Amino acid sequence: MSTLLKTTDVRCRIDEDLKERATAVLNACGLSLSDALRLFLRQVVTTQGLPFEVRVPSEKTARAMKQAHAIRRQFDSIDDMLRDADAI
Q1: Share of the chain above pLDDT 90, in %
Q2: I need a labelling partner for 5 at 20 to 30 A (CA). Which of 29, 65, 80, 85 fits?
Q3: Span 11-54: which CATH code?
Q4: What is the pTM assigned to this prediction?
């Protein structure tokens, strides 16, 4: 005799682009977004916390992150990015 698991729905509001990009990555791994969320929640229960370390960056790291963000560039194509990298 098979036993059906009792399930519930979970709703979460997230940025549409984030959902699409994450879904593409997960699909490449053979997982659905629901599969990944179930895995994450199982790890939360197993580890009794987040399954990764969350830290507040040190003052030095925060400054470096801010500087890196300020000089970040966006490119219209890979070719543009490679030309810029070659110019350095």
Answers
A1: 57
A2: 29
A3: 1.10.1220.10
A4: 0.58
